Amino acid sequence: MLRSQRLFYLLGWLLLGSLPLIAQPKLITTFPTRGFCIAAPRPAGVDAFVKFIHEELAPRQVNVLILRVDWNYQFEKHPELRDSIALSKADVKKLVKACKDHNIRLIPQINLLGHQSWAGTVYALLRVYPQFDETPHVKMPEKYEWPNADGLYCKSYCPLHPEVHSVVFSLIDEICDAFETNAFHAGMDEVFYLGDDKCPRCGGRDKAELFAGEVRTLRDHLAQKNRELWIWGDRLLDGKTTGMGMWEASFNNTYRAIDMIPKDVMICDWHYERPDKTAVLFAMKGLRVATAPWRNPQVGAAQVADMANFRKDATPETRENYQGIVQTVWSDAENFLKGYYAKKDDPKYNKDENTPWNCFKTVFAK
Fold first, then answer.
1. Is the pLDDT confidence value at 23 over 70?
2. Is 174 a catalytic residue?
3. Domains and CATH numbers, the chain
4. What is the distance between the alpha carbons of residues 139 and 144, in angstroms, rounded to a whole number?
5. Which residue among the candidates 190, 214, 228, 248 is catalytic per the annotation?
6. Which residues are annotated as active site (predicted)?
7. pTM
8. Best CA proximity match to 317, nearest among 348, 285, 341, 344
9. What's the start-to-end Cα distance of the chain, in Å?
10. CB atoms within 10 A of CB 27
11. Cis link prior to 147 (omega < 30° from 0)?
């Protein structure tokens, strides 16, 4: 290379290298999904939660609110499944109006397939319809402990029971109508009981095919009214190969269902202790995905940065699969608001940095 050429390239390198110091346009990344997920408030807490929507969610440009309703609604078609104290249609309309005021997409959740019990309590669906139980031979203990000989974490319903979907579809339709929504979150996380050997319908069947079949069944029903299905993503990840374990990923071989479910299912990819970058897997499989933090602000901040980089560096074909962030809260709404507004009596309550309200503040500050 001639001396003049070397000088030319050196000058160009110096100029390019100094551009950030001279003038560089700021990279602005807007996430299509800026979500918040929490248990729906009880009737007495609706007004306080509406205030939170107006004063906290809207200014942060939250545009998706997932409310974990489950049995906290006065179902009319299946009143036997209501909680003893549950939201009325008038309560729900207050939430709907607040969200409409700020163009927030409101998505109700009923946990389906798994999470039909917790600790020693069987939830409404299996309590009222015990014939739907995937593992009726597993009895609820007087004192729940984990681990246990039965491998009991939460009960599941049998996805192949011939009568279960007539009830499930009725619940989905009624709650989607009440919330005036075009999307429904089915949960479907941490499904440990599936394809049990003693189930006369599911025993011996491929667990990935069973899981994918239930996803397709729910998705196809929702699609009849142009509604989307949202689910948690953990059962679609291989917990053994990745080392992510049996909670944030699957140990019972459901992970192959990732190649069997419709591509228009929205995935909420939760990771709470490490910013695992599994959003890339979902996006490259053609699925839309939002990363979901919980209580660790540092992890949440890393997940926001990762999602911004995924979108920036993605091909045009996959960029919109990286949808954004859904901040999750796993307490009831009342306790979250107490922590958020620092009203709890315990002086240690707000000193712990790792809380869902601190993570929420950090994530949306990013």
1. no
2. no
3. 35-365 (3.20.20.80)
4. 11
5. 190
6. 190
7. 0.91
8. 285
9. 47
10. 7
11. yes
